User: Which sequence fits this backbone?
């Protein structure tokens, strides 16, 4: 088998499997391993979605696409992306081998690093895959990271996660109660992240625009989220978002609108206040499920750094 046929296809990449087996989280992007089919998948995804970005995406996202010189004809090299990105906001994309435990992910954001998947979806699943891939991460997320104010929101979110870890590690009393509180805190943060950074809508004059990366990387959903009467769109209320379950395997039927990036930043501040006041200690159950690895990532976080 040649490298041309092995490729870096999501869930089918031996390079990723060996990195995971070796316990590596951060890796490099072995660009030569992308197959011709992988490159063709990027070209198709990009060509299909670009006109929809022009119509539905927030203008700051389009500025980001231009400022990154995001290539239409080939999978981007992260080092090229970072050359454009880093002077604009201090952010860099850092290649990862797959799932990153919750605290590690948020703490990367605090340090202006974005854990970035390097595999690309199979040609057979252009429309939907549950795992992130490089199209979701680099074409969906990274253009927004060029905006200083948006990047500050991510950093602030990382600070909230750090505060949650400090709070969990210093909690006294019954271990079971401590774990339930932490689980609730992480669930609240994950929901906030989902309904803003991943699936957020923003006012722009009299229109609504998309700034959430889950929408920006989906050819079908970017249109559906703004045009379908099946979707409920409400001004973001923190008490609702932190108690609202979400499911990842279908189009979102409920989305939340913020007024501006400043508004979003203020909401993250409020999230931290609520955490400090114990208002996130018992949010409603349900999705997402917080696994033991995520809990331990907070409990065992090294807070001296
Ligand atoms: Fe994402």
Assistant:
């Amino acid at each position: 088998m040649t490298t041309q046929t092995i490729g870096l296809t999501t869930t089918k990449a031996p390079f990723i499997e060996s990195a995971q087996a070796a316990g590596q989280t951060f890796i490099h992007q072995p660009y030569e391993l992308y197959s011709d089919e992988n490159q063709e998948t990027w070209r198709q995804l990009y060509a299909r979605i670009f006109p929809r970005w022009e119509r539905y995406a927030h203008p700051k996202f389009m500025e980001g696409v231009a400022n990154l010189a995001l290539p239409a004809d080939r999978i981007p090299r992260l080092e090229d992306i970072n050359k454009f990105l880093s002077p604009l906001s201090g952010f860099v994309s850092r290649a990862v081998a797959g799932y990153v435990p919750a605290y590690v992910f948020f703490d990367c954001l605090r340090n202006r690093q974005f854990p970035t998947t390097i595999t690309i979806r199979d040609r057979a699943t252009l429309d939907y895959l549950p795992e992130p891939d490089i199209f979701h991460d680099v074409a969906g997320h990274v253009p927004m990271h060029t905006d200083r104010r948006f990047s500050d929101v991510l950093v602030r979110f990382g600070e909230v996660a750090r505060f949650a870890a400090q709070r969990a590690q210093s909690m006294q009393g019954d271990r079971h109660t401590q774990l339930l509180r932490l689980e609730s805190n992480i669930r609240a943060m994950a929901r906030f992240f989902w309904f803003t950074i991943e699936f957020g809508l923003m006012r722009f004059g009299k229109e609504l625009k998309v700034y959430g990366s889950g929408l920006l990387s989906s050819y079908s959903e970017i249109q559906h989220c703004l045009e379908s009467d099946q979707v409920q769109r409400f001004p973001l209320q923190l008490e609702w978002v932190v108690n609202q379950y979400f499911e990842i395997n279908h189009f979102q039927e409920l989305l939340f609108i913020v007024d501006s990036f400043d508004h979003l930043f203020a909401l993250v501040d409020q999230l931290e206040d609520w955490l400090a006041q114990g208002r996130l200690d018992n949010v409603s159950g349900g999705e997402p499920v917080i696994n033991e690895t995520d809990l331990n990532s907070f409990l065992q976080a090294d807070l001296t750094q």
User: Anything to note?
Assistant: The chain has a mean pLDDT of 95. Residues 132, 136, 141, 198, 213-214 surround fe (ii) ion (CB under 6 Å).
